[in-house]
Amino acid sequence: MDAQQFEPLWTVSDVALFLNVPVHTLYGWRTKNYGPPARRVGKHLRYLPSEVRSWFEHLLEEAA
Prior knowledge:
The chain has 3 helices and 2 strands. By secondary structure, it is mostly helical. The protein has a two-stranded antiparallel sheet.
């Protein structure tokens, strides 16, 4: 696979900006097993943009 096929991973700040929530909220959600899935890369959390979007779209489907 070519590395150019992948979107850059998002940081906690990127996800907070996308969802319009404080960074602290994302950390709180993680302690409650809620929120978009994240992975540890060393000591850092990283998100796949497609999984964040999918998680958000699933919320919209549940609300409908």
